[in-house]
């Protein structure tokens, strides 16, 4: 029985091939000889998605032009295609699938991996063939071999394909229809586009803008607090009354009622002086989103760079599967981690007595691990010297994963908390002091320790001198989002709960996006020039503000709606929902937006004019001489594209950004000056002059 193993990409296929007895690489696949497959086997691969949805014009020619009267575009049956650049590899895969007696789906063990493999198999017309599923969390040889020895029934995972494909098709429907709808409606208002909208990206943008709008429109208001200064045993400390007041007169009235004056000395009596020893367990193990949030907070790394780097560490067999939303491991992982504790301690450059050799439910629960467990080190533990040789971002992320795993075995953090209440003529003033007793697991991390708040020795009944003061202050606006906070914002559908205990209160979070897609959504918002990130602070651009102003109050601005969609998509994955029902719902939503959006346009605010103004200063199209070259997001294109002009110019060429001034020079003079910084495929940097000939860019080197 000849078996074809379908991997997601060449590097994954190579990891599989290395785990077998004999492997020989040929064009587009590996030939495998191993007792596990007595009938022979081949490992082939995609390049991620080999199959994608067709463009609108492939359904109906009239759908090629952007016109309001062609909306909605809802095909009766969706068509898929293989892009030209990927056809050679697809044909190799298709040929092997035809010969196969059995197909092993060995793409990433998640919904998207299932979609990548099944869409290839379906496009090749081989869905009738029996399938098995490889489901593993690591690319280590022993894990790969064990996975192939324990292959699962492929049909059990078809519902994940249904879920992922439904998400893909619904994103196409919303993106194609709603992007055209708003681009055309804004054009009627004199605002140039295009404007890209999406099922997840648009409510995400709107939540960022809501915070920015709140900050911009924030009006500070005064408030007043009652503070008491004390000195006991030579140590000064301060207590505070629990209430705040909007007017100074209100604070003064309270003092007067209790026979007190601002700045005057009064006697206070300690009515409560409690000391409690408290301890704090180490944080949960990392999911992808918690790792992204932590690394952004600690190092200002972007979520997409964290995902890319942890994926590289996974492919180097150093950490477990990264695209996980789980923060638990099973007993199996706990056993192997326990067995390599000494090696992990040495790798982290630490030595401590193992305080928790047995599993604790905060970290180890078999029932909590559905698809993938938390991100942890593999059995291939690096030495401290090897860690130092990793790239800086790899080193920091690996050390964080290593530290969070070791913390599970370390002693809890111990501290003493003192609560003091002072009665000053009937008014209660309070203060809380903390003193660190044992750093425990905190010694594994390099964050600065919080300064102790040490209070003098006090007991109930002590009388202490006190001076009561009225302190004035102003309310402060909320802070702008950081890039890392966007991940948390999306995961909680706008409920910003970074504290672990607060998150635990939400038994089920209906977030938007998935663990694997949230970073790419943020990148899309950057690419579409809706947001910019400066020193890790996220702001919405004028283009983004324009879009947010016109979608406000619509379902597109509702993260709750998108979260409900995500919830239903997960039901499809659990075989509790259907693709047909979901897509019918999306079609109704699109029709509703086509009807309601024109009513919502109202007055486009001044920021929209800025979008228009930016386009108007660009040069005349060098091809048709009628339109002007306008910013299309990822490139410059002629504004008369509807009249048939297809002139475009790139913003990026051979990894070098082309400036507006250079685009203008190309259009008006037909060439630029000498530009430094182009990079060849071999990685060499060179300089060249760009020349425009017959609408196409050529390079001159003199």
Describe the structure.
Its EC number is 5.6.2.1. It comes from Jeotgalibacillus malaysiensis. It catalyses: ATP-independent breakage of single-stranded DNA, followed by passage and rejoining. It is an enzyme of class 5 (isomerase). This protein has 702 residues and is α+β, with helices and mostly antiparallel strands. The chain has five domains: 148 residues, Rossmann fold (3-Layer(aba) Sandwich), CATH 3.40.50.140; 173 residues, Topoisomerase I, domain 2; 122 residues, Topoisomerase I, domain 3, CATH 2.70.20.10; 120 residues, Topoisomerase I, domain 4, CATH 1.10.290; 84 residues, no CATH class. Helix content is 37%, strand content 22%. The chain has 21 helices and 25 strands. A hairpin with a 3-residue loop joins strand 18 and strand 19. Helix 6 packs across helix 17. The two termini are 61 Å apart. About 3% of the residues have low confidence.
How many helices? The count is 21
Q: Any idea of the CATH class of the largest domain?
A: Mainly Alpha
Helix content: 25-40%
Shape label: globular
Q: Indicate the low-confidence ranges by residue numbers.
A: 501-509, 606-616
From the N-terminal CA to the C-terminal CA, the straight-line distance is 61 Å
Largest sheet: 7 strands, mixed
What is the overall pLDDT average?
Answer: 91
CATH architecture of the largest domain: Orthogonal Bundle
In spatial order, strands of the major sheet run 2-3-4-1-7-8-9
Radius of gyration: 31 Å
């Amino acid at each position: 029985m000849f078996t074809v193993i379908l991997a997601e990409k060449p590097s994954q296929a190579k990891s599989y091939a290395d785990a077998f007895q004999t492997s020989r690489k040929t064009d587009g696949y590996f030939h495998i000889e191993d007792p596990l497959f007595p009938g022979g086997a081949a490992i082939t691969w995609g390049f991620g998605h080999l199959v994608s949805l067709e463009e609108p014009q492939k359904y109906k020619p009239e759908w090629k032009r952007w016109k309001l009267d062609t909306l909605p575009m809802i095909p009766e049956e969706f068509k898929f295609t293989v892009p030209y650049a990927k056809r050679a590899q697809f044909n190799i895969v298709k040929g092997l699938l035809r010969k196969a007696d059995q197909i092993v789906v060995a793409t990433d063990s998640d919904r998207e991996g299932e979609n990548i493999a099944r869409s290839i198999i379906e496009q090749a017309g081989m869905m009738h063939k029996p399938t098995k599923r490889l489901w593993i969390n690591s690319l280590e040889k022993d894990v790969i071999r064990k996975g192939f020895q324990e292959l699962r029934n492929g049909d059990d995972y078809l519902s994940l394909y249904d879920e992922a494909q439904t998400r893909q098709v619904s994103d196409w429907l919303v993106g194609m229809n709603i992007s055209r709808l708003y681009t055309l409606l804004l054009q009627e208002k004199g605002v140039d586009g295009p404007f890209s909208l999406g099922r997840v990206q648009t409510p995400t943008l709107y939540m960022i803008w809501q915070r920015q709008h709140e900050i911009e429109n924030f009006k500070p208001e005064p408030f007043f607090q009652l503070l008491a200064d004390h000195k006991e045993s030579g140590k000064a400390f301060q207590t505070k009354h629990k209430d705040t007041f909007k007017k100074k007169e209100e604070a003064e009235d309270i003092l007067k009622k209790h026979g007190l004056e601002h700045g005057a000395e009064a006697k206070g009596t300690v009515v409560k002086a409690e000391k409690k020893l408290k301890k704090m367990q180490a944080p949960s193990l990392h999911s992808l989103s918690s790792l992204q949030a932590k690394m952004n907070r600690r190092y200002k790394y972007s979520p997409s760079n964290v995902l890319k780097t942890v994926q590289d560490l996974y492919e180097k067999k150093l950490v477990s599967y990264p695209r996980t939303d789980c923060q638990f491991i099973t007993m199996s992982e706990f056993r192997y981690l326990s067995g390599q504790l000494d090696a992990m301690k040495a790798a982290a450059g630490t030595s401590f007595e193992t305080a928790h050799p047995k599993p604790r439910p905060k970290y180890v629960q078999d029932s909590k691990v559905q698809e993938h467990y938390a991100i942890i080190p593999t059995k291939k533990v690096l030495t401290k010297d090897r860690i130092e040789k990793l790239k800086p971002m790899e080193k920091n992320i690996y050390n964080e994963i290593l530290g969070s795993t070791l913390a599970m075995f370390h002693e809890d953090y111990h501290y003493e908390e003192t609560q003091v209440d002072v009665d000053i003529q009937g008014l209660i003033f309070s203060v809380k002091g903390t003193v660190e007793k044992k750093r425990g697991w905190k010694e594994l991390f390099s964050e600065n320790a919080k300064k102790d708040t040490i209070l003098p020795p006090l007991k109930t009944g002590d009388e202490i001198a006190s001076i009561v003061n009225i302190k004035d202050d102003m309310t402060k606006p909320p802070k702008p989002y950081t890039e890392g906070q966007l991940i948390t914002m999306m995961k909680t559908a706008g409920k910003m709960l970074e504290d672990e205990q607060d998150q635990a209160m939400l038994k089920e979070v209906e977030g938007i996006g998935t663990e694997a897609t949230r970073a790419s959504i943020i990148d899309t918002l950057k690419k579409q020039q809706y947001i910019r990130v400066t020193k890790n602070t996220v702001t919405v651009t004028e283009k983004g503000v324009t879009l947010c102003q016109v979608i406000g109050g619509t379902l597109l601005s509702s993260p709750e709606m998108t979260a409900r969609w995500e919830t239903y998509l997960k039901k499809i994955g659990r075989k509790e929902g259907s693709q047909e029902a979901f897509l019918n719902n999306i079609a109704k939503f699109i029709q509703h937006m086509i009807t309601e959006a024109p009513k919502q346009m109202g007055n486009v605010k001044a920021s929209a004019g800025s979008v228009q103004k930016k386009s108007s200063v660009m040069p005349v199209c060098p091809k048709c001489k009628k339109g002007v070259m306008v910013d299309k997001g990822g490139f410059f294109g002629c504004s008369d594209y509807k009249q048939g002009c297809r002139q475009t110019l790139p913003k990026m060429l051979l990894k070098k950004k082309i400036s507006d001034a250079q685009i203008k020079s190309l259009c008006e003079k037909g060439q630029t000056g000498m530009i430094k910084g182009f990079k060849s495929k071999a990685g060499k940097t060179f300089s060249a002059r760009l020349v425009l000939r017959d609408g196409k860019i050529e390079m001159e080197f003199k």
